Amino acid sequence: MVVLVIGGAGYIGSHAARALKRAGHEVIIFDNISTGYEILAAGFELIKGDVLDSAALARVLPRADAIMHFAAHAYVGESVTNPRKYFRNNVEGGLSLLNAAVDAGVKKIIFSSTCAVYGEPAKVPIEENIPRQPVNPYGVTKLFFEQALEAYDRAYGFRFASLRYFNAAGADDSGEIGELHEPETHLIPLALRAAAGLGPELQVFGSDYPTPDGTCVRDYIHVNDLASVHLKALDHLAAGQESFAVNVGTGTGASVQEVITAVEEVTGKRVPRKMVPRRPGDPPILVANPAKAQALLQWKATRGLRDVVATAWKWMERQSKLAAR
Prior knowledge:
Layout (H helix, E strand, L loop, with lengths): L1 E5 L4 H12 L3 E6 L13 E4 L5 H7 L5 E4 L6 H6 L1 H22 L3 E7 L22 H20 L2 E7 L1 E3 L17 H10 L5 E4 L11 E2 L1 E3 H16 L5 E5 L5 E2 H12 L5 E4 L8 E2 L4 H7 L7 H20 L1
Parallel strand pairs: 1-2, 1-4, 2-3, 4-5, 5-6, 6-11, 7-10, 8-13, 9-14
Antiparallel strand pairs: 9-12
């Protein structure tokens, strides 16, 4: 199949593009490079364009059999201070893509959704049937697009898979692509930078949560496991199956302290850190119940926290060596 990967020059999109290529699919990457990097799209056809540009989409969509949509702004804090940016890109841009796809006759899409659509869940591990009540504009924009997909499915037979990610982390085993964000806000790369002396000491937001060691617990899923579920979702839709939404996580949580310990074990270096107050709106525990994805797609995460940290470290070391040349 020919798959148009929107946002394929970004972190998760670039890993999905490689997984598609390895599985024998043809990949076209469409990215405005606002937060992506051309280096992550190396080896693929890259069309520079914006999802708000319906004319640019209309030129490429007739070549595609299916779409994977990764192009979203994704900083929760920024979404609170600059919601206009988020509604413009994630909602208006998403609708622009949907409408162009319908006009071009492309009716299969795999969407990067998020556990942020649930807000602060009353029950953990999180199941798909709990209410979707996002607590920040980022989560609201993702929920809006999920609901748009549901409406387009009913009206136009537009088949979708909404994959609700938990915490994506790690890097490709090759060390050739990995996590590149500016600014970087994710725990594992920040902890690795602190350990390597390449960044400031790690800030640990809160040590008094109702968790075993007082720090927040999250479900960290290896980015290649995440890429593999996109292939399963594509196969599901290509077989003419119904649209669906599933959680994509490991089902196992790791606390901030456990992540720090794993970083220290992998790197052999101490992580300099300081405890600071909680961030508003950070739930104590966010862990997926991945049973639906396992049952529907025969998919299961295969990598644990140590793999996540080890591949992220390999990527960071490689980047440091290239920068030193």
